[in-house]
Design a protein that fits this description.
Largest sheet: none
Strand content: under 5%
Number of helices: 8
Structural class: mainly alpha
């Protein structure tokens, strides 16, 4: 592992230590605090989209997706057991990102060059394995039955399959933003988060996963 990778990883860890508690507290408090939190995310995302949109059509369509995300994330939190539902999506997306980063950097392997010069097939596999392993075994542990019930109140469904699909959708969001960055010759969507780049670099998967999971609950697939 080279020095640049070590420095970048340290920046990522430090940024996460400061940012993650703020995110979780905002979700937990809900109401006006959560609304302000989502509004800030939306406004910053609108601004960063300008950096990776090669034409007005892409910017308008991407902005609509951000608006749908705002609505989906708000509705998820507003419903029964909303804190657990939002946290469920958030953690799957985070572990998907971490799994892809660690597997890709450590194991390396063939690159998915058409999407991003830094993404690998081993990273893509790691993106599935880490959230499935960590979240599934955490929720199914006998000491966590209460949390498990908060998440599956919507009906009977396969938890393992759900984690896998939400992770898949999260990766789709990551790949989409990576593709837009590649087409616009941008390394990052912005520079707001040290070690991570822009806000969209970190929440691209969360945006797609939140929209999907909200629809999943509404239609109870």
């Amino acid at each position: 592992m080279d020095l640049s990778l070590n420095n970048n990883l340290i920046k990522r860890i430090i940024s996460s230590i400061f940012i993650l508690p703020i995110v979780i507290i905002s979700i937990y408090l809900g109401n006006s605090i959560y609304f302000i939190f989502l509004t800030l995310i939306t406004l910053i995302s609108f601004n960063e989209l300008k950096n990776i949109s090669t034409n007005n059509y892409i910017y308008i369509f991407s902005s609509l997706i951000i608006i749908i995300f705002f609505y989906s994330a708000w509705e998820l939190r507003s419903g029964p057991n909303g804190f657990y539902l939002v946290l469920f999506v958030l953690l799957i997306s985070i572990f998907t990102d971490i799994g892809g980063y660690l597997f890709g950097k450590i194991l390396k392997g063939p690159k998915i060059s058409k999407i991003s010069p830094n993404k690998t097939y081993t990273g893509m596999i790691g993106s599935f394995l880490l959230p499935v392993f960590l979240i599934y075994f955490f929720l199914t542990h006998e000491n966590n039955n209460e949390i498990y019930e908060q998440i599956i109140y919507i009906g009977n469904f396969n938890l393992l399959f759900t984690i896998f699909v939400v992770s898949l959708i999260s990766q789709a969001g990551d790949f989409t933003v990576s593709y837009l960055k590649r087409k616009s010759n941008q390394k990052d969507t912005g520079k707001i988060i040290p070690g991570h780049g822009g806000l969209l670099d970190r929440i691209d998967g969360i945006i797609f996963a939140s929209i999907f999971y909200y629809l999943f609950i509404q239609f109870n697939f």
